[in-house]
Amino acid sequence: MQSLEESVIEFVADFMGFKAERIHLHTTLYGDLGIAGDDGLELIQTFGEKFQVDLTGFQSARHFGSEGLSVLAPLGLLWMVLSYPFRQKRIPEEESNLQAVRICDLIACARAGRWMGIAGR
């Protein structure tokens, strides 16, 4: 019988078509696996159904951004290029002003049976 950790990792791997070996407890959905926009929302909704997690309070845009590009995207890209030499290395979620969701966060939510939000890191 699989542990909850193995089940969650296998779920994410199968859902996205990845090998489970690529995923570990601190893998982030957005930054490490590239799950964004509607794909992120669909993954979390399916996760909630499969693991019976109450997703009340979950805000997809907070963790996965929105689908498509904003009309201001070219300005944001220009700013990123020009400011690159002066920035400290940050994770992709920080660069995009998103809150990271890690595999261990999904496991904790599955254990609790509810979306617990992601503690500030």
Describe this entry's structure for a reader.
The chain has 121 residues and is mostly helical. The protein has one domain: ACP-like (Non-ribosomal Peptide Synthetase Peptidyl Carrier Protein, Chain A). It is built from 6 helices and no strands. α1 crosses α6. The longest helix has 14 residues. The protein starts with a helix and ends in a 9-residue tail after the last helix. The mean pLDDT is 82.
Summarize the structure.
With 121 residues, the protein is mainly alpha-helical. The protein contains six helices and no strands.
Strand and helix layout:
Elements: H1 4-16, H2 37-50, H3 60-64, H4 73-83, H5 92-95, H6 103-112
Q: Regarding quaternary structure, how should these chains be classified?
A: single chain
Report the strand count: 0
Q: What is the number of independent domains? A: 1
Specify the CATH homologous superfamily.
Answer: ACP-like
Identify the notable features of this structure and list them briefly.
6 helices, globular, mainly alpha, 121 residues, Non-ribosomal Peptide Synthetase Peptidyl Carrier Protein, Chain A
